[in-house]
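BUG: 3D viewer hangs when loading the predicted structure for this chain

Environment: internal workstation, default settings.
Expected: structure renders.
Actual: progress bar stalls at 90%.

Input used:
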Amino acid sequence: MILVAMLLVILFTNTAFAQPVTTSENEQFMFFQNVKEFITNNYKEDVSEVQLLEAALAQILKQNPEVLEQAMEGMFNSLDQHSTFYNQHQYQQFTSAVEGQYGGIGIVISKRDGYVTIMSTMDNTPGKRAGLRAEDKIVYVNELDITGYDTNMAVSLMRGDPGTIVELGIKRPGEEEILYVKIVREIIKVNPLTYEVLEGNIGYIRISDFNANTDEYMRKVLREFDMQQIEKIIVDVRSNPGGSLDQVIKVAQRFVPEGPIVHIEYKQDEKETIFGTLPTAPYELVVLINTGSASASEILAGAIQDRGVGKVVGVPSFGKGTVQQLLPLRIGGAIKMTIANYLTPNGDKIEGKGIIPNLMVENVTKAINTDELEPVEILRRPTIGDRGKDVLAAKQRLHILGYDVGQVNEELDEKTFNAIKSFQAEQKLYPYGVLDFTTQGAIDNAIKALEVEVDMQLQKAIELLR
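Structure tokens produced before the viewer hung:
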């Protein structure tokens, strides 16, 4: 007994067990590790580290159930950057993006002149049917004044469960009174595609992300292109962060002929290959990528490149070559965990490397050509109701800078007056809507300092398909 007591005194002294208070996170962790190690090395019966850790966690959660989410976050923080734990709110936001639908009213908004402003209304949505218009400014949501709110805050207030009501207070151009509109929310489907026909009968399709609706809308676009006998297509996945593996495979199967589209490597070297089924490639393709093209975007670009059905133009992509599985939890929320790597048809890994374009092309920036604008001649101080070439010069420049001036003409109307006030406020000038000498000079200087991006990548894609 004496020898055991002496051993304990020596051990506890050397490992800082006797410290009455442990404050730092590192000290607490080392204390816990030392106790765990002492138990596994000296306890009479067999006991594993796993048993001890599970028992410790169970006791903590029993006494502090609110720390469960923190424990889950800590566990997933030890994995790769794409594996994560979502609480219920985060899970709802994630599934809304991936599923491509949400409960809302179907409007596109932006921040303009200090207001959350409607830019457009989607067809066949509650917002369109309620008579909302582009340029309407949203002042109230359910009687809450949202002046000064950013668009994300406004969106969170307007979205909600389908069948519920949201009331908007609208400030409409030309109307003095606030217009109140009650709208019943519905399921809004998000279309991630935009498209057009370029000169030379070249189809252009921009995919913003691979949500659950991507292939449905791709089918409609390609049907329209087929009716116009379009055989050359540019697929733009620049700054597309990815999305659904199922959706990108379906999209790729519309372009890639019979043969491999992507290889998926699971744990313990289990491998799956997804194939195309078309007898031949139906289109001549160019895919545009950049450093923001990731995951599903890289699967599509890699398949088209490796199978020789098109060229890839741009700069190397992001390099996210892993597949995640989403598992909802009974406690609410979900876990998203990496379960596999994917490889291009030729067996190339994407993780940390990305897709290397066939043609490396970088976009360039250049200054605005002011020779095409009305010259700035600072001779007077126009105010609301005035007309003239100096007003036109200011409106042209404010429009390029992103301010809403309405029609770009020689009239200093109410919209122009408000745009001038907004510009003055942002430039820390006195915001009173008058085109004084200082304001005219500041507008001209802002244009001279502005650089716009020239899409050299798109130009090269068009050149390749002509």
